[in-house]
Design goal:
single chain, alpha/beta, five-stranded parallel sheet, 6 helices, 20% strand, globular
Length: 136
């Protein structure tokens, strides 16, 4: 939970940060009871692989289908961002969407790689603007 701000509701407008990893799938399934009660759910992918390079035609479609099988009406959204890192792109999209919860998989790289390159998990933990549900 962010150290600043008031959160009258959490999970009414949820954003799932999706990168098709094991950690992201675990987070979605761990958060399923929350997502089932949400009014709106958006599955967001930042910088997904293109269909031309072997990525899916519609990033997030598979997990949105999985969610629909559990009674969650989820929309998908993706963006390619070269100007800002993925973590900040996620926070920006969460604000645009009006998300009051971000569901994401937490992933840790080696300490050296995290120090040099940072990481999405680190960015979200340091700069979160809404509560984050994270699983690993």
């Amino acid at each position: 939970v962010p150290f600043a701000g008031r959160f009258n509701s959490v999970g009414r407008h949820a954003m799932v940060a999706w990168n098709a990893s094991r950690e992201a799938a675990r987070a979605v399934n761990d958060a399923l009871p929350i997502l089932q009660r949400a009014d709106k759910v958006i599955v967001f992918s930042a910088n997904p692989p293109s269909a031309a390079s072997g990525g899916p035609d519609l990033p997030g479609a598979e997990i949105a289908l999985h969610l629909s099988r559990h009674g969650v009406n989820a929309e998908t959204s993706s963006t390619v961002s070269h100007d800002i890192d993925v973590g900040n792109a996620m926070l920006s999209r969460a604000a645009d969407f009006g998300a009051d919860l971000i569901v994401m998989g937490g992933y840790g790289h080696s300490r050296q790689r995290e120090f040099l390159l940072g990481g999405v998990t680190r960015t979200l933990l340091q700069h979160m603007t809404v509560p984050v549900f994270m699983s690993h």
